[in-house]
Design goal:
This protein has about 425 residues and is an alpha/beta fold. The protein is built from 13 helices and 18 strands. It has helices at about 10-20, 55-70, 95-105, 155-160, 170-175, 175-190, 200-210, 260-270, 290-300, 315-325, 330-350, 360-370, 410-420, and strands spanning about 5, 25-30, 45-50, 75-80, 110-115, 120-125, 125-130, 135, 165-170, 190-195, 215-220, 250-255, 275-280, 310, 350-355, 375-380, 385-390, 395-400. The two termini are about 30 Å apart. The mean pLDDT is about 95.
Amino acid sequence: MKLGCIADDFTGATDLANNLVRSGMRVVQTIGVPDAPLEADVDAVVVALKSRTIPAAEAVSQSLDALKWLQAQGAQQIYFKYCSTFDSTPEGNIGPVTEALMEALKTDFTIANPAFPDNGRTVFKGYLFVGNVLLHESGMQNHPLTPMTDANLVRVMQVQTKRKVGLIDYKTVAQGAAAIRERIAGLRADGVGVAVVDAISNDDLLRLCPALKDMPLITAGSGLAIGLPVNFGLSPSQQASQLPAASGLKAVVSGSCSVTTNAQVAYFKASGRPAMALNPAALTHGQSDAVVQQVLAWAEPLLKDGPVLVHTTAELEAVKAVQAQLGVAEAGALVEHALAAVARGLVGFGVRQMVVAGGETSGACVQALGIAQLQIGPQIDPGVPWCYAPNGDGKGVHITLKSGNFGTEDFFIKAFPVLA
């Protein structure tokens, strides 16, 4: 194995795996840390954790377990992958996990680069932009679990780590690998342990990657992955993304309340396709199982006519009301559990092609379906591939795990023809 990757959520893991596959790596994604040695002959493994919003100590422990397993498989370089919107809180988990991995790998320096230009995530003078606006003006300031209120990544990262945080700015990146290496040497001499790196285009990422060739640990979003395979002598190949033929019924399960996903839900509804909203308030007072059965009873007769959509409410006030009643973590877990039960029921009806939207929702659904490994297939939109989960009986599930902030407005509709 050339590259060992640790992702802090399941959609981010497939996002990273997608970019590696498109750049020529043979990739397997595991759900959690495997309990046995790797059997597949691949160039990279992405270990998908559900650690983005759990307590920092737990995230560190899980990440170190993933590191130990990857090292045992012979990984030559470690890649800690987080969201391109740098989802975190003052307590972590990006900073604490980064520090723990650095200590375990005995390295005094790494970079932080969430840029993903293909999806409008760019870093300029250390500030993270989403499209044409700063991070804290993009809607991420209202994220129910990780509200991002500061676009300055140097400041954000400095709060989360004891190590000194610096910047490799766009002027240095534009000069190429030699200039970047020189800047890294200067930062290390000044006692900097983590450097945020500017990138406003894919060309910037491609200029950055050669400078990272001998770095034990890289921390980044998935965008940086487009330039790493060449460091190992690999080039793009169509064979890397081939999946078994798809069959079965189709469905969409969405737990994201992001601006992007809300627009995708609205587009699906406007097209005249069947959709049902699951209000978090209806799940309280022990009513969750009854609500799930109601949703499944609605969906079953409609599946034969095409994809159905089950989604959480887009109303921010409704979400806040349940959070106020139960607490943020408990409210989120309640919704995840219900949507995971819906996903399991849909597969029971014969759904074999499923789109899941939202990082936390994807993690819950994958675990509920008992998926242990994913084969990465063709890209639907930047950062979002179809995957295949074998189950041993020849009736595997084709599934795509979409980050809440990714995909075009018509994503829920256009995803299925890609498999055909």
